[in-house]
Amino acid sequence: MMLDVKLSLVNHLDKGLKHWDRLRLYHGTREILCRAVPLDKELIESGESGYVQLRLEESIVSKKGDTFVVRRYSPMETIGGGVIIDPSPKKHKKFDEKVIEALKIKEKGELKDIIEEYLKRNLKNYPNIKEIMSYSGAHEEDVKRALETLISEDKVFIIGNMYMHINQYNKLKENTIKLLSEYHKKYRLRKGILKEEVRSKIESNFKTREMDILLEKLSTENAIKIENNIVSLLDFEVILNDKQKEIAKKIEKRLKSCGVSSILTIDEVSEGNHNYAEVLESMIGNKVEKLDDLYIMDKDIYENAKNILINYIKENKEITLGEYRDLIDSSRKNCMIILENFDRNKITKRVENKRILF
């Protein structure tokens, strides 16, 4: 464990404090052995102050602003004391100007400056409010006010219950745009990337809900667009050449001729032909509805089947599989595939052997 501290030595010491001196740290009622790493000078002389990182041999519970006393390991003489600036720092190198500047801000700055500096240094950890409180040593209401100010100044962004510095948000935005650009160049006939794939490649530490918040934010900034859980750049469009347009017409004609009486699989439509598979991929969500990982149907026919269902339930409160089969004149298997799609898309909700509107 480590502590970043401002340490002041008493006057009239025979020798000052140098790198790796062993000390006894007194914090509250505890004595902890530690090593000293002066950060802003080679040697802290008697009567001087300096920034020091204490490398502790045991863990302690402390907060910013706690005071302490230090004695030499041997002989056991009191040499000074100070204030804890950071109770959970990373390991520092000596004479790092960024570290020293950050310590000055934390020592003297306003709470919002301290929090901003903390978030800058924890770009991949996404702390919650309790972790920020623990770091800053401030009360919850004060931390909330400071965060609200930083958010209003566009310096901090909140995702769920996590906070990130705007630098990290911009980095995630840049990486997302880069990912989509490379994907569009490689797969010109695909509409985009599934949200879950974006999450796994951009920030796997995010839960699905947290990635949704980030992507919605990027969408409101007109950086990306989201359609049916597929993410793409705002200005990206699938453009078919003449040959591909002919293939699209054939696929559309075949699916329309099947209606709801014969739902086809993706493999049946693409027939193992790479060109057909690519064009079919580009049609999903537009002319083609993907029912699940296997089955597809014509989009217009799908919408008609959905409207028939909704109107029936509005009049009758509920519907069974058999009733739906009779309504659209299809097989039990096909109706089950369609109804399960409606359930997943929150159009219907299954209650025992019946469906109601979601």
Automatic annotation (TrEMBL):
Official protein name in the record: Selenocysteine-specific elongation factor
Cited CDD domains: selB_III (cd15491)
Keyword Transmembrane attached: no
Every Translation elongation factor SelB winged helix type domain range: 178-233
Pfam families in UniProt: Beta-barrel_SelB (PF25461), WHD_2nd_SelB (PF09106), WHD_3rd_SelB (PF09107)
Gene Ontology molecular function: GTP binding; RNA binding; translation elongation factor activity
Annotated keywords: Elongation factor, GTP-binding, Nucleotide-binding, Protein biosynthesis
Residue intervals of the Elongation factor SelB fourth winged-helix domain: 311-357
Species in which this protein is naturally found: Clostridioides difficile (Peptoclostridium difficile)
Cellular component GO terms held in the UniProt record: cytoplasm
InterPro entries: Beta-barrel_SelB (IPR057335), Elong_fac_SelB-wing-hlx_typ-2 (IPR015190), SelB_WHD4 (IPR015191), Transl_elong_EF1A/Init_IF2_C (IPR009001), WH-like_DNA-bd_sf (IPR036388), WH_DNA-bd_sf (IPR036390)
Superkingdom, taxonomy of origin: Bacteria
An example Gene Ontology biological process: selenocysteine incorporation
Taxonomy of the source species: Bacteria, Bacillati, Bacillota, Clostridia, Peptostreptococcales
Limits of the Selenocysteine-specific elongation factor beta-barrel domain: 12-91
SUPFAM superfamilies referenced in this protein's UniProt entry, alphabetically: EF-Tu/eEF-1alpha/eIF2-gamma C-terminal domain, Winged helix' DNA-binding domain
